[in-house]
Amino acid sequence: MDADEMLALFDRRMRREARADAPGARIEHVEVPGPPGGRAGVVVRQVGGDGDWNGVLWSDLDETTADAAIAAQTLFFGSLGRDFEWKLYGHDRPADLGERLRAAGLVPEPEETVMVAEIDGLPAGTGLPEGVRLRPVTGPAGVDLMVEAHELAFGRSDPGMRRQLLDRLAGNPETTVMVVATAGDLPVSAARMELHPGTGFASLWGGGTVPSWRGRGVYRALVAHRARIAAERGYRYLQVDASDQSRPILRRLGFVPLTVTTPYMYEL
């Protein structure tokens, strides 16, 4: 499958036909009226609770429907008292959709590269450095190690992270995989995988590594570990929203860049 075919498959299965990623969330397909005689637009959004992801996953818009769609989403999520994210992709239309989102008050975060690999083509070995082992995360103690790894890797804390991870474990135990890499008692990296039933895709998240442990193969080992689990459960593809730091590693492993994505955030 070439990159264009893969992007079309990703758009269809992971965006247009997306399934809610939390027990209390729902996916809605909302029509946006067009001008008289013109084409209507469509927005696919997830609506969840306070601890869930709320936002726009996919849209089919043009210059005549984009502004109305943006205004409708800010009004809708605002009426629920929810911040939300509009997940914009580089091939979304209209071409100036990002500018329109900024004009409506949404703030862009750093751009990431959407990368996909066929699991069968990925290296099978973990290649862990000496003294490092991988621990599956199944409860609060493991989540605490993940949060600590995140803080050590990025030099900042995320007050809601622990609660969000615990909620994922409790609400989606069959489709959420978490793992932490430790050197002795010290967490040096942590990562998560979300399985998307019926799509063939599993998505990789996290993987931030403590600075003193970077360049030793820990991130690659976390990718291989999760790929093996996904393959055992019948999944064919791995997808990552890759940062500038992880993109070169993923390319060497066999991941192919498909497009870019930019989170546009709206905060009340």
Query: How is the biggest beta sheet arranged?
Result: 12 strands, mixed
N to C succession of SSEs: HEEEHEHEEEHHEEEHEHE
Unreliable sequence segments: none
Euclidean distance between termini CA atoms: 42 Å
CATH architecture of the largest domain: 3-Layer(aba) Sandwich
Query: Helix count?
Result: 7
User: CATH-wise, what's the superfamily of the largest domain?
Assistant: Gcn5-related N-acetyltransferase (GNAT)
Task: Please report the first level of CATH classification, the CATH class of the largest domain.
Answer: Alpha Beta
Q: For the residues shown, what is the average pLDDT?
A: 94
DSSP strand count: 12
Could you say how many structural domains there are in total? 2
Radius of gyration: 19 Å
**Shape annotation:** globular
How large a portion of the residues is in β-strands, by DSSP E? 25-35%
Query: What percent of the residues sit in helical stretches (DSSP H or I)?
Result: 25-40%
The helix/strand class is alpha+beta
Annotated CATH topology of the largest domain:
Aminopeptidase
Structure at a glance:
InterPro entries: Acyl_CoA_acyltransferase, GNAT_dom. By secondary structure, the chain is α+β, with helices and mostly antiparallel strands.
